[in-house]
Design brief:
The chain is mainly beta. The protein has two domains: 101 residues, Immunoglobulin-like (Sandwich); 297 residues, Distorted Sandwich (Beta-galactosidase, Chain A, domain 5). It contains three helices and 31 strands. It has an eight-stranded antiparallel beta sheet, covered by helices on one side. Strands 4-3-7-1-31 form a five-stranded antiparallel beta sheet. The protein is globular, with a radius of gyration of 23 Å. It starts with a helix and ends with a strand.
Amino acid sequence: MRTTVFLLFLLMVQTAFSQELARFTVRPQKGAGLSPVAVSLDGLNYNTDNGRIALFLMTASGEKEVPSQLESGQSARLWFVFDNKTGEKKYVIRTTTQPESFQPAITLHTDDQTTTVWNGNSPVLSYQHAVALPPAGVDLKYKRSGFIHPLYSPGGEVLTRIQAPDHYHHYGIWNPWTKTNIDGREVDFWNLYLGQGTVKFAGYLDAVEGNIFSGFKVRQEHVYFLEGGGENTALNEVWDVRVWNLKPGISVVDLTTTLNSPLPNGILLDAYRYGGGIGYRATEKWHKENCTVLTSEGKTRAAADGTNARWCITEGESAVKEGRSGILFLSHPANRMHPEPMRVWPPDANGNRGDMYFEFCPIRHQEWKIEPEKNYTLKYRMIVFDGKITPEEAEMYWKSFASAPKILLAP
């Protein structure tokens, strides 16, 4: 009897302090693992004075609140993490006046040089918004801003490199276009020493911290230099960088880039083996004897260059306790030319030392016309790890990125 009364009391308290907005069921995506999932709030009165939005998992023993994060805007969404391996689950969205019990694990810190994303007390990555000057004595044409460095493994190994003496224009994680054509004029935004163009940080659009993801949006400009001085913007680019709070022991980083040309005739991105997409210059520790590549099509480093893939594992020796660290690069099915062409330095690259360079390159085999005042988007995910990732795990991560589990809203 006391148990029944107590349960009725809890139900009354919950009803008094919350209001149901919607119920839905999630059906898992076959072969996927943990997935960030968003349910639309369009049509729901979520902007109320009745408290915060909360998500509850419906179980046999009652409702249990799970971490969620509201992303508002033209189309509002509620994000949460779903494990596709655990089967179908039912949820309810409520407004509640109960205080938030989940705190952001991923946080941001911005100073006059960078925005750094932290997971607890460990850095994940830094985005450089200030201009990075080249080493003393090197041509100032090599200066630039708007790139990710350092990118850290979960154990603290720095996996990126900038301004390598063999390629001063390499900047960690970055994506300038190489051979382009603007009204019949060739412009190279990649090889900075040519003095034809560069990429500049142009401002923060937003920054967000939450218990599902934290990140920021920035605007970058691909500018070309005019004869006699001055410059003009060929491409406006928005980087949306998100670090997901998925599970301990890995970092999950999304880089979504959206391109828009303000030029009256747009810009032609010529077919070439370098340019755009997502480029990665690896740590100077890696060389042909201690690092490897494996693609979704089974290509190793010696054969990967110029081929297409859905994902690519780049990994090598590191000082972490596992002895190895790396990045699994994922290309989204919505990307141009997916499965995407790659540029991978072969083992005899760079004076036969075999330094590591990787890139998903959507213009590798076919030119791309960016029409004026239209948006073009490319989506990438990086799974940053210590130890090893198997091909089966890589495929699971890609499926989690490529498509979301099915959400069925209750009538």
